[in-house]
């Protein structure tokens, strides 16, 4: 498949039929890990979530988070439900990088992690797979980090960052 076709065909999918196979997932992660990175640190850390219960909980947290800015209308409620149901029939990859430190010359790790995500989304296309990017922030991010047991050095919401920089 030509790169231009891959770029053209990639689009966000919000309803999945089935998760990727282990081989597909492996190939996608290998492509993702070829992304450029600040200082060549390859500072991306991926949690692969395949069990239904955890994905269900991630969907509930995402739905509650988005409810704070989604209008309480029929359409709004349908959009929220989609944000939850997208966690069905898929594999969820949570991509982390180091929490930035104010004087860290590698504070661009976040950019590198996003390049990893973009490579992953593009690599899904020739596999015949779809992807959806999503994010958590503030209390929802903390909740997800606790749910997944993410060490503090990898995940840090802006609130947590402010707290640690005034310490
Ligand atoms: C940083 C980032 C966060 C996103 N968060 C969400 C999200 O929470 N929910 C969602 O449905 N789509 C999310 N998206 C997907 C965008 O809505 C989507 O990329 C955009 O509408 C363009 O559509 P396309 O990807 O099909 O080209 C996110 C995309 C990015 C890059």
Helix vs. strand class: mainly alpha
Strand content: 5-15%
The global form is: globular
Strand count: 2
**CATH homologous superfamily - what is it?**
NADH Oxidase
Bound molecules: flavin mononucleotide
Order of helices and strands: HHEHHEHHH
Please identify the top-level CATH class: Alpha Beta
Described by its quaternary structure, the protein is: single chain
Q: Could you name the CATH topology?
A: NADH Oxidase
The total of helices stands at 7
Task: Give the domain tally.
Answer: 1
CATH architecture tag: 3-Layer(aba) Sandwich
Describe the strand arrangement of the main beta sheet, using strand numbers.
1-2
| Mean pLDDT across residues | 92
List low-confidence stretches: none
Give Rg in angstroms.
Answer: 17 Å
How widely separated are the two ends?
A: 52 Å
SSE order and pairing:
Elements: H1 3-9, H2 22-32, E1 45-49, H3 52-67, H4 74-85, E2 92-96, H5 109-124, H6 138-148, H7 158-166
Antiparallel strand pairs: 1-2
Helix pairs in contact: 2-5, 3-4, 3-6
The structure holds flavin mononucleotide.
Flavin mononucleotide binds at residues 11-12, 14, 83, 132-135.
């Amino acid at each position: 498949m030509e790169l231009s076709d891959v770029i053209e065909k990639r689009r966000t999918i919000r309803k999945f039929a089935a998760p990727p196979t282990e081989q597909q997932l492996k190939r996608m992660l290998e492509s993702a890990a070829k992304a450029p990175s600040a200082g060549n640190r390859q500072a991306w850390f991926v949690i692969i979530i395949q069990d239904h219960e955890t994905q269900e909980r991630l969907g509930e947290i995402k739905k509650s988070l988005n409810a704070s800015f989604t209008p309480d209308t029929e359409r709004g409620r349908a959009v929220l439900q989609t944000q939850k149901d997208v966690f069905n029939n898929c594999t969820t990859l949570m991509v982390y990088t180091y929490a930035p430190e104010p004087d860290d010359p590698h504070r661009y790790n976040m950019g590198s992690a996003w390049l990893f995500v973009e490579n992953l989304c593009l690599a899904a296309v020739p596999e015949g797979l779809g992807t959806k990017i999503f994010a958590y922030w503030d209390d929802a991010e903390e909740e997800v980090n606790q749910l997944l047991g993410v060490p503090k050095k990898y995940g840090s919401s802006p609130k947590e960052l402010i707290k640690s920089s005034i310490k």
